[in-house]
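User: Now give one protein:

AI:
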Amino acid sequence: MKAVCRFSCVAALVFLILVPAVASAKDFFVKQPPASLDKLYPPLSKEPKWIQQMHKMSGSFGGVFVNMKEGDWENAEKLAGQFVEAYKETSKMVPEWEEYFDLDAARKFAETVKTRDGTEIGKAAGPVGKTCGKCHGDNEVSVWAKYHWPSFHEVKVIDPHDDKEVEFDEYMKSISGAFKGVTVNFKEGQNDRAGKAARVFKAKYTELKSTCSKCHTNGDVKRFYVGESVSAALSGLVDELRKEKPDPGKVWQNVGIIGREGCKHCHLVHRSASFIKERWEEK
């Protein structure tokens, strides 16, 4: 029975940590983290101290339940004590966020671990988990956006069309313009114009392999957005539009592959963080 209780506690813990307390809120606002957090991340800090502290707390807190499940109460109690110290230390790191912490709840959790009663430990873990969930729900997205995502607005691109260096945002607009040049002209029966736009679009899009490598040092990641299927579709689109009578089915098939497997996949990963940072920079 105690083993079941211990397992239930672990499940409850995972739920509390991974599901923010405000996840069901109808309105979601992303505000900038307090300036005091800057000192805990590069470039003001050599190490990302805040996220390291999060791992420290999570490791000791979760480790309690790992040891409980294994019947290793000595180490469970040891980690509970370490968690309280880490929790207390973290509460002082960002003054604006001190109210998120409940030191009494943390101490009670550690004391309850000594009882070796899985049910009671699970109850004591609840209030502590809620403090973590509340802070994560209010701040986690903004912290990740500000400190863990590089800013696209600092990236420069050499446009292969005219060999000029341009801002990343400007370059993406030019790619979008070339893409529209393909689709609009083809719909209007202007195949020569569509073909010319397709060649420009292919050159600009393919250049992203080099641009993406500024952040994506792993080639496999780059190929996810400018991979074999997208590259084949780019070539197929250009080749089809060179024909005297392009096949509309093949043209739109290639357009779809590029849009779904290239543009959309990249946007799904990157645009949200980019939009957030852009709004902050406007202020």
